[in-house]
Amino acid sequence: MSISALVPMDGLAGYRFLQRTRDQQEYLIAQTPMSQRLQTAFKERIGSIDTPAQLVNDRELLEVALGAFGLSSDIDSKFFIQKVLEEGTTDSTALANKLSDQRYQDFSKAFGFGDRTTPRTKLSGFADEILSQFKSASFEVSVGDQDESLRIALNADRMLEEIASSDDTSRIKWLSIIGNEPLLELVQGALGLPDGVTQLDLDRQVEIYEEKLSRQMGIDIDGLTDSEHRDKLIERYLIRASVDSFDTSSPGALALTLLSG
């Protein structure tokens, strides 16, 4: 039996509903036979995986591994994923470091095949770590099947806290956001920035995001460790996304535009 996320409303009201019901809905989706089968396979077999080749040739394990990082669309790109894992992230010339999407670096680093003498698959808590991410991501995917903007919002609340609370410099934190397509879409939308910003030099992009966040919300990126600030940023994104989904000449769109500031 398949269970989909319950999304009775769109926009900000839908997001508030999902916030309230997330734990219960995530649990129910994780209990479906397909999810249980994948979770059991991962728990039982991931500890025996020594190489990227072994991982990519076990489709059930690969489905969980990629799903945990929002990379499920790469399930049939076995050679590409194997290379991402084999080269790791410590060498600046590694494939994961050349890709614009930060998720490939996070994925490669999490498994540690190219960065460590012994991969992280051998750690006792590794399976639970990845499965926790997989269950969260599976819920977000189910929401996204019905409303992509809500999926982006849910993912952002989880990821922005992780990035903002890291020990990295402000520049590295911004680069992590710029390199993550869903996060970038949310931040650009929330701050009212055009897509053309991504064509600028990376340092200039960081300057623009820092300036806009400070001017519009009175915080720097470290301020996003505060749930109230993250919530406000997400709220701005959802309001603007609602505006974009309306005919801009309609009275409803005008009201939303005024609310979004």
Relative strand content? under 5%
Number of helices: 14
CATH class of the largest domain: Mainly Alpha
Number of domains: 2
Globular, elongated, flat, extended or rod-shaped: what is the shape? Answer: globular
CATH superfamily of the largest domain: AGR C 984p-like
Mean pLDDT: 92
Please tell me the CATH architecture of the largest domain by its name. Answer: Orthogonal Bundle
Give the number of DSSP strands.
0
Radius of gyration: 19 Å
CATH topology of the largest domain: AGR_C_984p-like
First-residue to last-residue Cα separation: 44 Å
Q: How do the helices and strands follow one another from N- to C-terminus?
A: HHHHHHHHHHHHHH
What about the largest sheet?
A: none
- The secondary structure category is mainly alpha
Helix content percent band: 55-70%
**Which residue ranges are poorly predicted, with pLDDT under 50 across at least 5 consecutive positions?**
none
Architecture overview:
This protein folds into 2 domains: 11-132, AGR_C_984p-like (Orthogonal Bundle); 169-259, no CATH class. The chain is built from 14 helices and no strands. The protein has helices spanning 11-30, 33-45, 52-56, 59-67, 78-87, 95-98, 102-111, 126-144, 148-164, 170-178, 181-191, 202-217, 227-245, 251-259. The radius of gyration is 19 Å and the shape is globular. The mean pLDDT is 92.
Helix and strand layout, with pairings?
Blueprint: H1 11-30, H2 33-45, H3 52-56, H4 59-67, H5 78-87, H6 95-98, H7 102-111, H8 126-144, H9 148-164, H10 170-178, H11 181-191, H12 202-217, H13 227-245, H14 251-259
InterPro entries: AGR-C-984p-like_sf, DUF1217
Pfam family, one: DUF1217
Protein name: DUF1217 domain-containing protein
